[in-house]
Amino acid sequence: MSGTSTSTTVITNIATLVTNDPSLGDRSPLGLIQDAAVVIDGDRIAWTGETSKAPATDNRVDAGGRAVLPGFVDSHSHLVFAGDRTQEFNARMSGRAYSAGGIRTTVAATRAASDGELEANLTRYLDEALRQGTTTFETKSGYGLTVADESRALRIAAAHTDEVTYLGAHIVSPDYADDPAAYVSLVTGEMLNACAPHARWIDVFCEKGAFDGDQARAILTAGRAKGLHPRIHANQLSYGPGVQLAVELDAASADHCTHLTDADVDALASGATVATLLPGAEFSTRAQWPDARRLLDAGVTVALSTDCNPGSSFTSSVPFCIALAVRDMGMTPDEAVWAATAGGAAALRRDDVGRVAVGSRADLVLLDAPSHVHLAYRPGVPLVRGVWRRGVRVV
Ligand SMILES: [Zn+2]
Q1: What are phi and psi of 174, to 5 degrees?
Q2: Which candidate among 37, 155, 175, 382 keeps its CA 20 to 30 Å from the CA of 51?
Q3: Which domains does the chain have, with CATH numbers?
Q4: Can you state the angle between helices 147-158 and 103-112, rounded to 10 degrees?
Q5: If you measure from the C-alpha of residue 372 to the centroid of ligand 1, how many angstroms do you get, rounded to a whole number?
Q6: pLDDT in tens, 48-74
Q7: Phi/psi at 283 (5° precision)
Q8: Residue 333 Cα, ligand 1 centroid: separation in angstroms?
Q9: Which pLDDT does position 2 carry in this prediction?
Q10: How far apart are CA 299 and CA 210, in angstroms?
Q11: What pLDDT digit, counting tens, does each position of 35-52 carry?
């Protein structure tokens, strides 16, 4: 929170301001205002409108005819880990199929790492993401798979974000390979008790080779009883019960959603669960893209996130995911930018981030481009020129 004496700053001469408030500007879902200004007061947005009408402030920043949009909300990452999986990626790109088992490599490295090593790795990737415009991020445990290793991962993550997810049910721990039921008991019992104080969310990888629908239901229900809110890794590698379970349990998000039946799409359209698409995973595994167009046309709320993790999607770049979503998943540039900002906020059930509205958090990205469309139009180009987080310019 800001202190007692805050200063006000106006950013003027914004060619295109993305507000995500459809009552503003062009009345589109992005609420685009041309020739715009934004006033920051402390850690909040205090005013938006046309530059010519901007009020007087203590400080003034000239955007120079560039675009400003809300900081990205990356609602799905796995950043508490050690080691990397370069060889696995290289092998896969040389023709071997992806399977969930590669996680075991990261589990071994993570267990062997010190707290300091894990935190240094986490902050390295957070800084990397921040330089690319991510001002809110969620991250998960899931590479410890013991009571002590899962709880320490969450403790370390909680020092850096409020959006912490307990994913003891990432895979069945290799220590329980012969007795998955005993591992589910651990995840819903002693491990949950140790982890719940450090987390807001509970997640499960509902997939062949990980956890089936009944196990996922038991794990999420146990988490809910301890005050955690559910989200699910659902329908990534194959069709399955994950998406419909997510809607049934009012999970904030069903993540991946690559293999969906019509009934899955209908369920998402009728519930409050966001479909979070993670194209970095399909890119990095040469897998089939999720069909964003089908979801959007059905009225489903879609979020875009990185899934940043060392195995299947080692990118921290939301702009890269926006470009993929536009090129290969049928999203318009406007839809992709909305999904990576307001959509991510919806997937975290937040209304204070992901938009530029009076009273929302002053998390802003200044692009070295006149329009947000350039995020897809100029893929791979480092367009993020400035970042404000909680009203403070950090890039
Ligand atoms: Zn994931």
Answers
A1: -55, -25
A2: 382
A3: 8-71+355-393 (2.30.40.10), 73-347 (3.20.20.140)
A4: 80
A5: 26
A6: 999 999 999 999 999 999 999 999 999
A7: -60, -50
A8: 24
A9: 42
A10: 30
A11: 999 999 999 999 999 999
